[in-house]
Fold this sequence. Notes:
CATH superfamily: HPr-like
Order of helices and strands: HEEHEHE
CATH architecture: 2-Layer Sandwich
Number of strands: 4
Strand content: 25-35%
Number of domains: 1
CATH topology: Histidine-containing Protein, Chain: A
Radius of gyration: 11 Å
Amino acid sequence: MSNNAAIVELSQTANKFRSSIVLQAENKYIDVKSILGLFTTLVGGLSYELHVHGPDAEEAKKELAAVFSKHNLNVAVVD
């Protein structure tokens, strides 16, 4: 299954926000605003942690969690 749609949507959503948005997958940290970073990391079956810090973090967490959920990706949003 291709995650291209998920990757593009996550990146586009992340880029709407000023907050720092980082995805942790095992021991890797990826800037969610970077499509290339997501392509190399967003592979099936992993569980992810989303770290969001900045002025619009709450809104960013809500929108990104919805995108992850829509694409059936397992993510825990870390406070």
